[in-house]
């Protein structure tokens, strides 16, 4: 009797829900009548107040033959009553009518399941009765939902109460039928499948009355039925025929009721089953069924967007954003499934034909629907991915014909597919240009697809030694792209779409020529060829005025920079013994020249990021060229950076300082920020290297690490390491190049390096090549005073001659150093004639300097002087 009690409880719940619904309707009617009465009362009170505020005027005497009217019109100034404002739902109403209703529906479904479990645990009912009662419970819930719907007003039929009951009933019937099949074996698969499918279909149809949440359950159940009913020999034809019917019915329902978000469930179920079958149950005999199913899915989702002519409720194009998103995603998912089909079918002819028809169908759809013409990218991606993931055998040493262990038919099939897709995407995209609205997308597909497919074919075939003269093919494609450029240039009218078409084919020409260079050149020559494209591209951009070409040039410049600066293999390229005229000259010199020419051409029209990158690239290549040539000239080992070669490091510092001076000069002259900053950065690098490494760490007087001096006195490595940098710093300071802090630092460094040079040359004269060894005698110590005094006097003379305040002060500082040495050191360390000569020489020089300053008066201000 428990089941009877349960049915009574359920019936009572249904009646209570019905009573609640009726009460709510009556409450709404009463509120509407109350609002109407209040409006009428407001109108009557306003009319009485208006009549009371108007004073009564005496009536004029009426002529005998005229009568006075007894009615007066309403005043025109009477205000119209305010429209009633509908009250929003409070939280209590939302809680009761929405959340509690759905919780009740879930509770009903769980109650039915628990009731079945209780009967199983205690063995109260036989399996057949349990299933029958469960199905009866579901049908009762359905009947209750229909009863509530037909008792509601037409505008309120789709309520949460009816949706909850309908969903609970559908879930209960699904569970009962599945238990009859899976748990009890009461239904064979041939009967369980159609019963479950009919239940799902009935649920979907009931959603027309009860709302979208019932449709969710119906769609989910329909796509879950094949997984619920197993078969020892699954049939691809039966499964995908069923899925086509489910997909068609669900999409028709969604289009009719405009429940666009439910289309994602249909998409996931349709494509998910196809991928699951390909991953787990695929047999090569199923290729026709799966391929036809995927093509059918393209038709279904195209119909969701475009409609079906002749069917009243399915006609017309739906332009909702949600529909466009679903259809676009569906086409990408179908393309992915087609690619998987080709892979699992081992590149079979039928699977390849399906992939080709998929790409063709996507192009046809894009041709008809301009709002979704971006799906041409899915067709192009499918073709490229198909060639990239083509299952080719591994090459071995044994050769069969022209190829390593590769059957000729495999090569022929691969190349045939590549050419077929190239013609479809290239020629087809070009043919569609005259009739489509957004021509730029079709031009991009037509221009990009052939070179991309050619590059993929070269990549896959190169390992097998197959060489059908790829360079000729690339140049032939370049000629075709050039013909398309001429065709587009003849139709150029300033419209943005036509400009983009012209740009697409111009970039296509460039891409094909780059491919030709890749096929025929190697190592440094390849990078040179890429760099030489930049001036040519600048010339084309100047003639066509296509901004997109500047972006392409920026990408090429970035590739060249990465290949020549961040590629460690560059240092391992074969290098001849010839000085200067080796691969370094053309490997870095030609790219530097190409960047300079492109900078002048692009910069004559705009000063943008491209011009700055080209300027910086020309500087980097020039510095690398000079540095690497020095490495090649001054050492025999492979090219690499060395820190223990005193002479090489000195020459590097000289080269960097000279280039920094030239960059700063050009930057000031042409007012180019990139050149000024490049010069400043190179100056900083050279200074850190010269001061920190040559002046301190590798200084010949440093113990343990000091390098021996090479060469003759005054014409030795000290001259390279200190004298020439001092001259370069002096030139930088004299011409005041760069920021103020830079040229002032250059002045100080010039004086410091010059002082270091003369000091070390004295040491070299007395100690020989090893300056960090030996004892300093009195003559050498006196020589330091004499040389420093002469050095300071010469500096002061130059300052007086050119009236340079900074040089004058630096010389006076040197004189102070000599005075301090003479009085503090020479007086104690020297003896005899050397001590006397030290003081006599110092006194004579100081007196002479005083006399010269009195005559020349260098301390008087003069025009242009700066401190």
End-to-end separation: 113 Å
Number of strands: 0
Residue share in β-strands = under 5%
Mean pLDDT equals 77
Q: For the report, how would you describe the main beta sheet?
A: none
Q: Helical stretch count?
A: 27
- Percent range of helical residues: over 70%
Order of helices and strands: HHHHHHHHHHHHHHHHHHHHHHHHHHH
Which regions have little confidence, pLDDT < 50, spanning 5+ residues? 1-21, 57-99, 862-867
What layout of secondary structure does this protein have?
Elements: H1 2-53, H2 91-122, H3 127-151, H4 160-183, H5 189-210, H6 212-228, H7 236-257, H8 263-280, H9 287-306, H10 321-344, H11 349-368, H12 376-388, H13 408-431, H14 439-461, H15 470-490, H16 496-520, H17 523-544, H18 548-565, H19 583-603, H20 609-634, H21 646-670, H22 673-697, H23 717-735, H24 740-767, H25 778-802, H26 805-829, H27 833-856
Entry summary:
The chain is mainly alpha-helical and 867 residues long. It has 27 helices and no strands.
Q: What are the defining features of this structure?
A:
867 residues; disordered N terminus
């Amino acid at each position: 009797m428990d089941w009877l009690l349960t049915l009574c409880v359920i019936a009572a719940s249904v009646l209570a829900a019905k009573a609640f619904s009726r009460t709510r309707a009556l409450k709404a009617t009463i509120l509407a009548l109350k609002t109407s009465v209040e409006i009428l009362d407001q109108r009557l009170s306003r009319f009485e107040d208006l009549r009371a505020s108007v004073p009564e005027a005496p009536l004029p005497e009426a002529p005998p033959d005229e009568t006075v009217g007894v009615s007066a019109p309403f005043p025109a100034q009477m205000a119209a009553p305010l429209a009633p404002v509908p009250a929003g739902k409070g939280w209590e109403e939302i809680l009761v009518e929405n959340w509690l209703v759905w919780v009740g529906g879930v509770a009903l479904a769980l109650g039915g399941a628990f009731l079945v479990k209780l009967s199983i645990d205690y063995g109260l009912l036989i399996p057949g009765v349990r299933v029958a009662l469960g199905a009866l419970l579901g049908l009762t819930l359905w009947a209750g939902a229909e009863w509530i719907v037909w008792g509601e007003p037409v505008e309120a039929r789709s309520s949460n109460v009816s949706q909850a009951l309908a969903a609970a009933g559908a879930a209960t019937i699904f569970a009962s039928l599945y238990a009859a099949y899976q748990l009890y074996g009461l239904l064979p698969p041939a009967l369980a499948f159609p019963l479950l499918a009919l239940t799902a279909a009935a649920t979907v149809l009931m959603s027309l009355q009860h709302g979208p949440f019932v449709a969710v359950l119906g769609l989910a159940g329909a796509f879950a039925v094949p997984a619920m009913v197993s078969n020892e020999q699954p049939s691809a034809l039966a499964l995908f025929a069923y899925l086509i019917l489910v997909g068609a019915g669900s999409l028709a329902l969604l289009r009719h009721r405009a429940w666009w978000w439910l289309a994602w469930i249909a998409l996931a179920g349709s494509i998910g089953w196809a991928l699951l079958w390909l991953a787990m149950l695929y047999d090569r005999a199923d290729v026709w069924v799966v391929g036809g199913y995927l093509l059918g899915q393209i038709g279904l989702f195209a119909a969701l967007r475009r409609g079906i002519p002749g069917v009243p409720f399915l006609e017309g194009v739906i332009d909702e954003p949600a529909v466009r998103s679903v259809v676009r995603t569906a086409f990408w998912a179908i393309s992915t499934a087609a690619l998987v089909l080709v892979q699992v079918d081992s590149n079979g002819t039928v699977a390849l034909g399906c992939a080709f028809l998929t790409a063709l169908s996507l192009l046809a759809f894009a041709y008809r629907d301009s709002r979704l013409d971006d799906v041409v990218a899915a067709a192009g991606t499918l073709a490229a991915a198909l060639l990239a993931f083509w299952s080719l055998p591994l090459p071995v040493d044994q050769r069969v014909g022209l190829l390593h262990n590769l059957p000729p038919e495999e090569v022929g099939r691969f190349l045939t597919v590549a050419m077929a897709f190239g013609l479809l995407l290239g020629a087809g995209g070009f043919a569609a240009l005259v009739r489509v609205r957004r021509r730029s997308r079709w031009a991009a597909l037509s221009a990009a697809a052939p070179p991309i497919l050619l590059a993929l074919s070269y990549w896959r075939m190169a390992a097998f030694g197959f060489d059908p003269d790829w360079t000729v093919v690339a140049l032939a494609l370049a000629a075709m792209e050039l013909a398309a450029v001429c065709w587009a240039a003849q139709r150029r009218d300033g419209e943005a779409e036509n400009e983009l078409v012209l740009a697409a084919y111009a970039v296509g020409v460039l891409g094909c020529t780059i491919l030709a260079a890749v096929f025929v050149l190697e190592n440094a020559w390849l990078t040179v060829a890429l760099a030489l494209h930049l001036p040519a591209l600048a010339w084309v951009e100047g003639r066509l005025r296509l901004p997109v070409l500047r972006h392409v040039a920026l990408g090429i410049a970035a590739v060249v920079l990465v290949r020549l600066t961040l590629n460690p293999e560059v240092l391992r390229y074969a290098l001849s013994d010839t000085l200067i005229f080796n691969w370094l000259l053309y490997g870095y010199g030609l790219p530097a020249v190409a960047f300079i020419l492109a900078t002048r051409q692009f910069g004559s029209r705009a000063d943008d990021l491209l011009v700055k990158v080209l300027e910086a690239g020309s500087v980097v290549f020039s510095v690398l060229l000079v540095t690497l040539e020095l490495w090649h000239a001054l050492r025999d080992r492979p090219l690499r950076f060395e820190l223990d070669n005193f002479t090489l490091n000195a020459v590097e510092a000289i080269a960097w300082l000279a280039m920094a001076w030239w960059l700063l000069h050009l930057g000031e002259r042409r007012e180019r920020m990139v050149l000024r900053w490049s010069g400043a950065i190179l100056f900083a690098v050279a200074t850190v290297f010269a001061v920190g490494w040559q002046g301190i760490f590798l200084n010949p007087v440093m113990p343990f690490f000091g390098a021996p001096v090479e060469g003759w006195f005054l014409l030795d490595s000290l001259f390279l390491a200190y004298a020439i940098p001092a001259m370069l710093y002096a030139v930088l300071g004299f011409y005041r190049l760069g920021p103020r802090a830079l040229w002032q630092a250059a002045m100080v460094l010039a004086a410091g390096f010059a002082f270091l040079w003369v000091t070390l040359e004295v040491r070299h004269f007395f100690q020989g090549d090893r300056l960090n060894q030996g004892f300093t005698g009195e003559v050498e110590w006196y020589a330091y005073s004499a040389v420093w005094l002469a050095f300071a006097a010469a500096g002061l003379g130059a300052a007086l001659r050119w009236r340079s305040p900074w040089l004058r002060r630096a010389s006076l500082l040197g004189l102070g150093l000599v005075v301090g040495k003479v009085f503090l050191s020479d007086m104690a360390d020297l003896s005899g004639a050397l001590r006397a000569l030290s003081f006599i020489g110092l006194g004579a020089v100081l007196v002479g300097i005083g006399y010269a300053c009195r005559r020349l008066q260098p301390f008087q201000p003069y025009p242009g002087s700066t401190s």
